[in-house]
């Protein structure tokens, strides 16, 4: 099983109305999107997050269940659901978040149930790594479970969410030290490692922080993986008629994890010794899955049969 650990929220998507423009609630969040995509790709997946007992929390539970995502690690409370109001500008999403004292943000590590024995990998990332106190709960979960299970991270740096940069960097460094695979954009690398110049030097700097494999995505330019032995593997992006890019990176992450699972590579040892040909297959699958998502509106990952 793959356990996706992080935010689930409601994206308020603009829609035309008779009076001008309104907003329609859609289930979302980076980690939620990855979990949904994994479920649709036929993977055994569950989610660890905090969800409200309100009507939006029920919408999120329904979305997880509909895509085959387990919810035994969900922490329920009567706090409100995080809302993210979305504005699309040239197909790219801009967000205004309402997250104060939410069910997801106010998580504590001790709220989580024990991680099931059959969990082989944990995935962390998104804004859940920045918004305290929940961010500290996820960091503690990562540190507690990383010794015996593969950990993949996508920091997806959002500077606007970081209230205390020193605390955020310290927490991120602790989690990177536990991680086996990290997926980052070139913008993420610039923020995390500003003292390094060039993607190769930045990737090497990140590997020195802990992860054996660093995957760098560059949008339409494709993705490059830097392996533990110093080998680089690159794949181009899949050609697609882009509607919008909402959820593209989240779905790419799901494609990578799904292919690793299918190839029997969801372990710390396997990540350290993954062969270039295997990594190329993994990246290509991630790109293929993401291409379907960008070809339709919103974070709507494909089902396995659509590939």
From TrEMBL:
Residues 2-302 form the Carbohydrate kinase PfkB domain. Keywords: ATP-binding, Kinase, Nucleotide-binding, Transferase. This is Carbohydrate kinase. Belongs to the carbohydrate kinase PfkB family. InterPro entries: Carboh/pur_kinase_PfkB_CS, PfkB_Carbo_kinase, PfkB_dom, Ribo/fructo_kinase, Ribokinase-like. It comes from the Bacteria. PROSITE patterns: PFKB_KINASES_2. The keyword Zinc-finger does not apply. GO terms for biological process: fructose metabolic process. GO terms for molecular function: ATP binding; fructokinase activity. Pfam families: PfkB (PF00294).
């Amino acid at each position: 099983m793959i356990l996706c650990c992080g935010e689930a929220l409601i994206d308020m998507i603009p829609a035309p109305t008779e009076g001008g423009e309104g907003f329609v609630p859609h289930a979302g969040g980076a980690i939620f999107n990855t979990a949904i995509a994994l479920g649709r790709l036929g993977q055994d997946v569950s989610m660890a997050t905090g969800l409200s007992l309100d009507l939006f929390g029920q919408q999120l539970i329904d979305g997880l269940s509909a895509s085959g995502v387990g919810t035994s690690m969900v922490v329920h409370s009567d706090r409100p659901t995080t809302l993210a109001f979305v504005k699309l500008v040239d197909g790219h999403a801009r967000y205004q978040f309402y997250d104060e004292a939410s069910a997801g943000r106010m998580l504590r590590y001790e709220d989580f149930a024990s991680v099931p024995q059959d969990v082989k990998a944990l995935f962390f990332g998104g804004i859940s790594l920045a918004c305290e106190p929940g961010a500290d709960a996820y960091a503690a979960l990562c540190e507690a479970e990383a010794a015996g299970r593969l950990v993949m991270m996508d920091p997806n740096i959002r500077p606007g969410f970081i209230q205390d940069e020193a605390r955020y960097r310290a927490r991120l460094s602790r989690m990177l030290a536990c991680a086996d695979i990290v997926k980052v954009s070139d913008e993420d690398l610039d923020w995390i490692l500003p003292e390094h110049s060039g993607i190769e030097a930045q990737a090497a700097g990140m590997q020195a922080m802990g992860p054996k494999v660093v995957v760098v995505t560059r949008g339409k330019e494709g993705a490059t993986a830097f392996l533990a032995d110093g080998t680089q593997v690159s794949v181009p992006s899949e050609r697609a008629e882009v509607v919008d890019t909402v959820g593209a990176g989240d779905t790419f992450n799901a494609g990578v994890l799904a292919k690793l699972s299918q190839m029997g590579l969801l372990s710390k040892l396997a990540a350290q010794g993954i062969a270039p040909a295997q990594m190329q297959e993994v990246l290509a699958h991630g790109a293929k899955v993401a291409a379907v998502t960008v070809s339709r509106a919103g974070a709507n990952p494909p089902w396995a049969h659509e590939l």
